[in-house]
Amino acid sequence: MKNAASLAVGPRLRAPRRPLAQWLDWRAGAIDDPVARLGYLRGSAAFWSRKPVRRALRDARVQRMSAFFALLVLPIPMITDGAAPRRSVEASSKTDTFATVWTVENTPDHELFSNGLRVEKRHMAAPRQAVPFQRWRLDGGNREEKAGPYGIVFHTTESDAAVFEEANNRQLRRAAQGTLEFVQSQRAYHYVIDRFGRVFRTVPENEPANHAGDSVWSDGKYYFVNLNHSFLGVSFDGQTRGADGRSSITEPQVASATLLTEILRARYRIPAVNCVTHAQVSVNPRNMGVGYHTDWAAGFPFGRLGLPVNYWTPLPAITLFGFKFDDYYANLAADELQDGISAGETMLRQAATRRGVTTAVYRRTLAKQFREVADPHRYVNFTEPESRSTNR
Ligand SMILES: [Zn+2]
Fold first, then answer.
1. Domains of the chain
2. Which residue has better confidence, 215 or 6?
């Protein structure tokens, strides 16, 4: 495991690729209100990664396009680029569209939905007491709660995966069974999608699951700390990047994840901005580093799941609480996620300058604020196999 001293501000992180990005960055620095600033960067970051964004647009189905356009939001009206519609952060969430989908059949061992997805319940952990999910306002810091989740964190189980071919069928089935039994015993996710695309609900949706550990996210109006208590955990059985450097995620898994995401987003009115990967939200408070867990640091099929690519979102862990990143994380990160890291760093430095303090001093102030928010909400962390403590 790395210690705090080895964390550095990104020698290997490439700079934003275009002068426009730097300009947008500078304008963001002039916005003092944290809500407006985050919202601004969220919108402007779309310019930084236009190429993948356009690719995503091509791939998306027509009915998903409105969700994609939420990405082109420019909440601060002073922007004059003209290439994107100007909408507020609030309006962006209203552009989310939700499918009409209902439960067709609900039996003790499965649930069937009108979009064709069958959810297996035979590996569900015993129900416990339902706990409200929580979030904090960015302006004022007030805590709010409701019975259901605010978002989804996507994971991989990081289980060793056999090659997905018929000759390995027995081994693949045995591996799936092993994963499910482990997840059930650990209450590790709300859903697991095995490599055949079968979907298992493993923890009831109105209870926390031990999936995200120490984690931070923000949707521009609220922030979330320790996402076990605010987001659902959906895990693909397999590895983001196996020993051969390739993903072991299968086509049936992506197809099922699309249907499951559609159902969960519709049921809880989850905005696209709150559909994130574990690598985007995971932090390590012991050394104040981001990316403690790195599942889906790259390659997440946002477009296939009807979601805009949101890797580029300025990392809230950096902007709100001053977390750092290191080479290990930056090297695993997709180009768009590197943009998100870079934007977060720039915002942080500019905020420090405005306050007349060094970035290091400002980071310490933010770290103190993080501890004040996070400590009262501690719980037992489930540690995934891809944790750096076992990986490195
Ligand atoms: Zn994970």
1. 4-391 (3.40.80.10)
2. 215
